[in-house]
Amino acid sequence: MLHQVVNIAAVTVLGVIEQAYFSLQVIYARRKYSVSPPSTTGPPEFERVFRAQANCSEYFPIFVITLWVTGVFFSQAAACVCGLLYLYGRLMYFQGYSESAHGRLAPLYFSAKVLWTLIGLAALGVLNTMCDLHLGLDALQQLCGFFSPN
Amino acid sequence: MLHQVVNIAAVTVLGVIEQAYFSLQVIYARRKYSVSPPSTTGPPEFERVFRAQANCSEYFPIFVITLWVTGVFFSQAAACVCGLLYLYGRLMYFQGYSESAHGRLAPLYFSAKVLWTLIGLAALGVLNTMCDLHLGLDALQQLCGFFSPN
Amino acid sequence: MLHQVVNIAAVTVLGVIEQAYFSLQVIYARRKYSVSPPSTTGPPEFERVFRAQANCSEYFPIFVITLWVTGVFFSQAAACVCGLLYLYGRLMYFQGYSESAHGRLAPLYFSAKVLWTLIGLAALGVLNTMCDLHLGLDALQQLCGFFSPN
Lengths: 150, 150, 150
Prior knowledge:
Four Helix Bundle (Hemerythrin (Met), subunit A); 5 helices; Leukotriene C4 synthase (chains A, B, C)
């Protein structure tokens, strides 16, 4: 049972560590640009780091939820590959945004595409399980059987 | 096993898609009112859309967590009904807030009530499972038996 | 099965109720200092309450995710103890921050240490399950056997 989700859990822990790294960067930026809490405004260099972290934080729960639904209802391997790509994209996004507002765009589009893929796979996996439950029809398995008939 | 949570997973995926829709609205509002990142302030029309999305994002993890605890420990059907009502309330909230600060109030109170119901059911389900575990007493099942004795 | 996670679920529900309490405090602060939505700036007293809640909300999904990974892959008891300490630290943080920016520091460091402990235990639990799966080696169980050989 645990073996069926342990790789998703590993990607999740990796994601948590990445979020912790982003949070530490905000703390360093607060010190560097002398922006004391509760203020969240300051020089653009600080605001970019702050917004980069805020944006990653905002999407993190959505990412983790979709990762697990995909991993449980579609395929653990597909979820892990997409998950690692997403975390890589977010790291590039954070570093790009820290340098310039324009630098965030390419990795943002990349991680958005990966997240949409995860959402699509999650929806597919859930729909397939519902079909299987209500109609007794496991479409994904039949499709797999169609492409590899023996 | 998956059949016991597939409907909760479906409501979760629906919620993720709703959050994605809200995020897209913020991107459109940024373009429409020329508010470039990392800035988050601008004309009230933009700030309302921005805050509506921020508020929905903030509550989304709490909603998903409570949905799953209710679905697993209380009843999948009750969780799904509350979940769909909550997502509908949040859509009304987002549209109302986009139009005026006052327009957010009625759907906000509605979705708050639904979320409190979910929290109550989650607490009830967890307490009941704890009673069952520690005292060997499944109060919910006995209560059900009391109202439908045959 | 449910019995193995019911205590984690109880800590989770407690955490959700704490978050709800923080949200209510922001609503009261908005009324007290006359800061109407969508504005999020005002007197420092309001901004401290607002930022305290925003910070707790931001970390809440990370906390819940790490709590569950620790509870499922390492130990339910360890997860619950850390979870309760974290929620207590966050309550102190919220009350301290509401009074002064300096008052947030001690409980912030405390809850950060607890969260890092949870992240460490989650990583340990996941790594151990992966070793067990891929190498057939349950290091944690062997370690326990080493310290209590009979």
